[in-house]
Amino acid sequence: MARSLWKGAISFGLVHIPVEMYSATSEHALDLTMLDRRDFSPVGFKRYNKNNNQEVSWDDIVKGYAYADGAYVVLSEEDLRRANVEATQTIDILAFVDAEQVPLLYYDSPYYLAPGKGGDKVYALLRETLRKTGKIGIANVVIRVKQHLAALVCVGDVIVMNTLRYDDEIRSTDELNIPSSTAKAAAITDKELKMAMALVEGMSEDWKPAQYHDSYRDDVLALVEKKIREHQTKTVTMPGKEKAPAHTGNVVDLVALLQKSLGKKPAGKTRAANDDDEEEAPPAPKRKTAAKAPAKAAAKPPAKARAAPARRKSA
User: Which of 182, 173, 177, 149 minimizes the C-alpha distance to 163?
Assistant: First the structure.
């Protein structure tokens, strides 16, 4: 049984739904340990007192808020909980909005919400209401010491609480060089668009998340297994020469690329990137061939390189 990360209730209007929160994801990152290359010993980090340089154990560590230079107010976990008990125990729904109105850019971390004791019916009521209306609930919730904006979404039979980024956490795109739909440099033709749409249609399929996996992680772990089998357990592979990236021109023939992607041969050869503004050079005139010299004369080597005449064999 998974361990719940948080217990409280969903609250909207006079409705109160006891719930427990569980992590909806699990990380599978490569767990690499830092080693000293001289003897391959693990490198550790110490928690130390910056005043006397003595190591500090976890039992002696507390959290403090610096209200002035070198002056702190110590806050315990109980202090943080008591500061606003209601905020730390409720997922307070502020509004219901259409799901498509919230861009994916705002979504952060998902959590499963399961009904708490006696909350099955009201949990199911909210779930079915979200499903039938196509709405999501926008809520406030405090997890540990941070208040989050969150979206309550119906996913199958589960209510998922997805924390959201605040608007001021989304960076502006004003400084990015993004071509507008009317930019001349980014103009696309109807033919290019139709072929791109045909390519997308040909590659379209049902969403099957199980068929996608971290192939890079798999390859690294396969390399680890190979090194273990070959007893290369304490060797360091030095970096080699990187392959130069393939040269690409500035001008791209989208039609040719799309035709290749669709399994068709290009209608014609594409011009080089630096030739788009230049006229094609005329073919070079053929050289006139000189009259053939007699075979013996043609066979004569240059004076300097001429071999000495062979000696006559004596009779």
Answer: 149
